[in-house]
Specification:
With about 200 residues, the protein is an all-alpha fold. The chain contains nine helices and no strands. It has helices spanning about 1-15, 20-35, 45-50, 60-65, 70-95, 120-140, 145-165, 170-185, 190-195. Helix 1 crosses helix 4 and helix 1 (about 1-15) runs parallel beside helix 8 (about 170-185). The longest helix has 27 residues, at about 70-95.
Length: about 200
Amino acid sequence: RLSFLIAKRLQFQHYLGIDLNDKLSALVFDAYLKSLDPERSIFTQQDINQFISFRLYIDDAYRRGQLEPAFAIYNVYQKRMAQRIVYILNRILFDYKKIDFTKDEDLETDREDAKWAKDYVVLQNLWRKQLKNTILSMKLNDKDDKEIKKTLTKRYKNTLTRLKQSKSEDGFRLYINALAETYDPHTQYFSPRVSENF
């Protein structure tokens, strides 16, 4: 109901008067993916291919108050984030000494316009390189291996805890904000929890 009401209010009462149509739907779809995975290091191209049917459907979903696009995408995001964190924690805790800094590798650090990883295997390789880059940066800042392992283990365990604490309203907030910010970058929806924190 809230999704329907917000979409209706934006469409008919926002000063820009933007129609809720397929063009806007595509913009919202892209904005929602970007809000979840701005560095293109969580989703695979296979995931994106699964989501593509929502690209021109989101406007219809808002009009009907349906949240299927929001949670179909958000649930995969949650799964991939958990996989990433567990993968990295396992590398830190069990394979730290196997990380090879003599191997000549490249890592694209600005991934905003990068292609999505073809599949999960390619994604894991990206995560491995990102972890290696983080460790290397810490080493260059005179951190020893013990300190690096402790710091990164704590960081990723905290991230996993926060991920477990996320609620459906978090996915809903990102989804609605993808719509609101398409109308105007200063227009946002505050969920009850975010509003209370604010």
